[in-house]
Amino acid sequence: MASQPPPTVETEDLPQSEGGKLKTFISILRKFIGVSDLASVRFSLPSQLLEPTPNLEYWNYLDNPTAFAAIGTSDEPLDRMLEVLRFWFTKDLKYVKGKPCKPYNSCLGEFFRCNWEAEDNAPRIDTRNLSNSANGSASASPLKSLKQESRAGSTVSVSQPGPSPAGPTVRISYLTEQTSHHPPVSAFYISCPEKGLHARGYDQISAKFTGTAIKVSPGEHNLGIFVTLERRDNETYQLTHPAAHLGGILRGALAVSVADVAYITCPKTRIKVILNYLEDGWLGRAQNRMEGVIFKYDPENDDKTRIKDVPDSDVLARLSGNWKDRIVFTLGPQAVDSHPPEKQTVIIDLNPLNVAQKSLPPKEIQAENESLKLWDGVTQAILSKQYSKATNVKVELEERQREKARERERKNEPFKPVFFAQVTDKDGRPDLTDKGRQVLERAQKNDWSLEGII
C-alpha cells in the first residue's frame, strides 16, 4: 500500500498566545478521541504549535551526563545500583526544569549525533561507610547532590557547543537514527569509552487521548534503556519506562505526571529495583511522589512486581521522595519514614541541576538527513515567526519522504538503517553497524567528518 500523508488540521497560520495554542491543540486532539494510538497515526500539527526541535535531538536521556558518567565507579553491587538510580532520576530534567513540548516527527533514515563534555565530579557512593558512620544525615551525606554549574543559555536544544566545564571532564558521544516509520521507532547508542560505559535501546511511544489527558506509554519495541558496564564483566542494567500522563489540558497549564511502576534489573548482581510512582489526587497540587525498594532477586524466577511482594529478608534499601525535587534512601527493610532525618541519605537533589548543553557537529559538515540540517528550514522559519513559510517547508519535506517511500516500494527495496544493524529487535538492544561504530569513534576524537562513512 502506498504511503499516505498524515492527517492535518487547518488552522489560522498566525502567531498565537500560549492560551490560543492550547485551544488549537485541544481542537485537534478531540478529532482523535477513541484512536488507540496517536503515535502510530503521526498526525501533522501546524507549525506554530511545534517546538523548533527535532524529535531525535529531544529524546536522549542525557539531560545530566555527569550522572551517567559516574555509573560503575563503586566496587559494591548495591552502590552501583544506586549510581544507576541517580542517573535514572536525572535523565529527564527537561520535564523538571521546563515545560512539555511537541518536537518534529522524525523522518525515516534521519539521524542525530552529539557529544557532551560531562563534569567528572559526581560524589562517590559508599554505603559501607554510610552504614558504619555515626552521622549519616542528609545534610552531611556524600550523596548530597550532583553539582552542576548553571550556564547561561542552557536549553534542551542548543545550536552551538556550550562553554567548557570547569574541572575534569569526560566525553560522552551519542548517536540515534530513525529506523522505522510504521511504527515510528528510533534506535540509540550512548558511548563513554573513557569510563567503560555504553547504553542503548529503542525509542517508541504509544499515546492515547482520554479527553482530559494524553497517556504516553512505551511501545512494543521499547524495552527500556540497557546500560552496560564493560569493566564489570559487561554487567548490564535494564531500566524500563513507566507510563506518563500529559495533563492540565483543560486548565491551560500542561504538566507531566507519572502514576505507574518502573523496574531496574541487573541479572549479574541479582539486584532489582521497583519504583512506584504514586497517583496524585484530583484535588490539590501535584505531589509527584515516588517510593521504591532495592532488593535481592532471582533472575530465573523474577516474580516480584509490586513493592508489597518483596519480603523484608530480601530488602537492601528503600527509597522515597519527589521525583521533581529530592529522593532519599535508607538501608535495610524498614520504611523510609520510620527513620529519623539523620538516617535518611539524599541520593539526588534535582534543584541545583540544569539541562546540560550539547556539543554539535558544525552545520557545514552535517549530512542532508542529519536532524539539525534536515529541519533547519522549518526551524529558522518558526524562530522568525514566519509560520506560513514553516508550514510550506515542512509539507515539502514530508512529501519528499513519502516519494522516497514510494520509490522503495516500486523497487521492492526494504529500508535498511545506516548506523544500526536492526530496524527493530525483540530484545530491545540494537547493534551498531561498522558505520555506526566509526561515527562514534570519530566523535570521541571530536572529529565530525563523515567522509568515507556515508
Automatic annotation (TrEMBL):
Residues 126-170, 402-438 are annotated as: Disordered. Residues 151-161 have a biased composition (Polar residues). Residues 129-141 have a biased composition (Low complexity). Residues 402-414, 424-438 have a biased composition (Basic and acidic residues). One of its GO terms (molecular function) is sterol binding. One of its GO terms (cellular component) is cytosol. SUPFAM superfamilies: Oxysterol-binding protein-like (SSF144000). It comes from the Eukaryota. Coiled coil: none annotated. It holds the Pfam family Oxysterol_BP. Belongs to the OSBP family. This is Oxysterol-binding protein-like protein 1. It comes from Monosporascus ibericus. The lineage of its organism: Eukaryota, Fungi, Dikarya, Ascomycota, Pezizomycotina.
